[in-house]
Design a protein that fits this description.
With about 180 residues, the chain is α+β, with helices and mostly antiparallel strands. The protein has one domain. The chain is built from five helices and nine strands; from the N terminus they run βββααααβαβββββ. The strands form two sheets. The protein has a seven-stranded antiparallel sheet with strand order 5-4-3-6-7-8-9. Strand 8 and strand 9 form a beta hairpin. Helix 1 packs across helix 2, helix 2 packs across helix 4 and helix 3 crosses helix 4.
């Protein structure tokens, strides 16, 4: 598994040109999931009810603010690692089940640059025509917390303060450093 934060992934130059990496940016379909989790009185077919319950439970695990706060503050204890695993497994399941949209491929040097290049105040970052950004699916918002960045087959959940590696369920790097 490649790391997001290697010497190779900071500023390297080859023949006078910087080496860029390709990061895939995935946005959580949070509006749909939020509405689904709140819509208890909407009738749905019985065979879909169990699927809805699983998706809503997984989404709620991803949103567990208490767990996120504890995990960021005390990332060394065994209990915190269990919380990271629950959050990471929820993110992996939602991505695998199609609850994230692959919105862009970004060529840059770090994952933090990829998140910055897919953000703007008015959420129309994709209209800027940046040559380093390939739009895969037109996004409806900017990149934010709980979105996923993929790099060479590894997945990272973007969180306040850094990234959660979705293979090892370890918090990696401080967002301020990258």
């Amino acid at each position: 598994m490649k790391s997001l934060w290697t010497k190779e992934n900071t500023t390297n130059f080859e023949n006078g040109k910087s080496i860029l990496k390709t990061f895939s940016v995935h946005h959580l379909k949070s509006d749909v999931l939020r509405n689904m989790s709140r819509a208890n009185n909407v009738p749905i077919p019985e065979h879909l009810e169990e699927t809805k319950q699983v998706v809503v439970k997984t989404y709620n695990q991803l949103l567990d603010k208490r767990a996120l706060r504890m995990a960021v503050e005390k990332s060394s204890s065994f209990e915190i690692q269990k919380l990271w695993r629950v959050i990471g497994e929820a993110a992996n399941k939602l991505l695998d089940d199609g609850w994230y949209s692959h919105v862009a491929n970004v060529e840059c040097q770090t994952a933090m640059q990829a998140t910055r290049l897919t953000k703007s105040i008015n959420s129309i970052w994709f209209l800027s025509g940046k040559k380093c950004t390939e739009i895969v699916e037109v996004p409806i918002r900017s990149t934010s917390f709980r979105d996923i960045i993929e790099y060479e087959g590894s997945r990272y959940l973007f969180l306040l303060g850094g990234f959660l590696c979705l293979q090892t369920f370890r918090f990696v790097g401080s967002a301020n450093e990258y």
